[in-house]
Amino acid sequence: MLINLLIISLVTVLFVTLSRKRVYVQFFAQIFFLVQVAFATWAVLNRGTTTLTYFTLDTLGVAYYVLMALVGWICCWQSSRYLDQESLRECKIYLVSLIALNVALTGVYFANDITVTWIFLEATTLAAAGLTYHRRTMRSLEATWKYIFVSSAGIAVAYLGILLLSTVSASGAAADLSYAALTQAIASGAGNPLYIKLAFLFILVGYSSKVEVFPFCTVGVDANHSAPTPASAFISSALVGGGFVAVFRVWKTMQGAAALASWTGHVLLLVGGLSLLMAAVYLGRTKNLKRLASYSTVENSGLMMLGLGIGGLGVWAAVLHSLAHTLIKGSFMLQISVVGKMYGSYKAARNGGYFRADPLGALVLVCCLIALIAMPPSVLFRTEYLILTGLLDKGLWWVFVPVALLLVAVIYWLCVKLLPLVSRPADLSRINREARNPLLSAVLLLLVLLTFAAGVWQAPELVRLVDTIVY
Q: Which stretches make up the NADH:quinone oxidoreductase/Mrp antiporter transmembrane domain (predicted)?
């Protein structure tokens, strides 16, 4: 079935490229995303299946793929309205890049071999670069080259880590680099512990541009700022989820050896703390709504790393946090795309009166803000509570205090810069009211309310889903 999806994507790209009318281009792109939704349904019903040797439809990959299919379809839908002034050629390049990014992320989610994950993560760099350079301005060109250079350098560093891991499960002249084989080999004490530690460090640093954590998170922020906002929504949600999946799989291979598990935990605590620090500092400096949302992603990804570093319930919280963040951040950025289209600017200080201009859209923004700052009933309140109490249970009060203070700073800056947008008096005579999309806002509101429902009552199916991924 996976090969069928690849064939359909290639055929769709061909039709998109050859189409001479915008309506046909958008139609064929929508067909791809509808097929992707159908494949997501098939994947749910066939969990545990291995196809093409190197891909397994495990619960972790299927969960993120379902979210990607949903967010991707909504992004494609909003893109047709957001890019209504683009030329036919620009529209084609944009949609081909978006489809390519979806296909690459499918490989990342389902790969059962660390080298295959590495290959598809590099493919996401090229696809995301096409989206980043869409506007073809000097700023977008700079952001694109930064993204390509830093992400590729990071992927090269990650490859050094994979080479070091190849010494762990080597058998004669070959090495089995499937995650299952690496887990078994590390648990049995095979390999040099120093090499394994260096491998994890290199891979974490290399993948940091994808999961948007310290040290390479800034290139992801720049890419989100330069790309069209519907594409930024996809990058901030699905691509960040792909980075988390890649890091999570490598981290899990280390957990069979107590010494390695402890060491990786300390590394992740450091990376998570530094990511929170960067987010808190830059949130205070930025005045752009898209960059504000992007640094919020850095903060949330830092919390995920803290959860993995704590272990135990912290891991459970990190996985749930990542799944919920995919929906919340995608919804947030998509609604921001409506704001930008209406006001013609993403400058937070210039815009206001959004509640009067678009009441339903403003309600979505407020709900997303409540979700992102982890206020009840947000499901992120529960996950952050588990992470913070996990720090105290481990006796890491020296980590708990700065993390709590940084979270307070993040909450302050998000509220200070977002609430005036919806409540501040402003002249609304020049805004483009035709850019409102009530149906999109209704769908996004439903998605955010679903995360609120998960914060109030966690259904047994959701608990079993996260349990299966973690344990």
A: 111-402
Amino acid at 139: R
Q: How confident is the model at residue 172 (pLDDT cuts 50, 70, 90)?
A: very low
Per-residue model confidence as pLDDT tens digits over 340-352: 999 988 988 788 8
Q: pLDDT value at position 161?
A: 95
Run of H or E including 423:
helix 397-423
b/e string for 71-102 if b means 16 or more Cβ within 10 A? bbbbbbbbbbbbbeebeeeebbbbbbbbbbbb
Dump pLDDT digits (tens) for 85-99: 889 999 999 999 999
Are 315 and 326 within 8 A, CB to CB?
no
Of 11-15, 166-170, 318-322, 465-469, minimum mean pLDDT range = 166-170
- Distance of alpha carbon 137 from alpha carbon 134, whole angstroms: 8
- Main-chain dihedrals φ then ψ at residue 175, nearest 5 degrees: -135, 130
**CA-only gyration radius of the chain, Å:** 21
Question: Exposed e or buried b for every residue in 192-201, given b needs 16+ CB within 10 A?
Answer: eeebbbebbb
Would you give the distance in Å from CA 248 to the centre of its chain? 13
465 in Cβ contact with 59 (< 8 Å): yes
Q: pLDDT per residue over 48-64, tens digit each?
A: 999 889 999 999 999 99
Residue for token pair 């990376």: 271
CA max distance for the chain: 74
Asked whether 410 and 373 are in contact (CB, 8 A), the reply is yes
The burial of 297, by beta-carbon neighbours within 10 Å (0-12 exposed, 13-18 middle, 19 or more buried), is given as buried
The pTM for the full model equals 0.96
Please report, for the chain, the start and end positions of each structural domain, with discontinuous segments joined by +.
Answer: 259-471
- The CA distance from 452 to 466, in Å, is 17
Contacts 24+ apart (CB under 8 A), 455-462: 455/376, 455/377, 455/378, 455/379, 455/380, 455/381, 455/382, 456/377, 458/379, 458/382, 462/320
Of 337, 278, 286, 334, whose CA–CA distance to 303 is shortest?
278
- Per-residue pLDDT tens for 177-199? 999 999 999 998 888 899 999 99
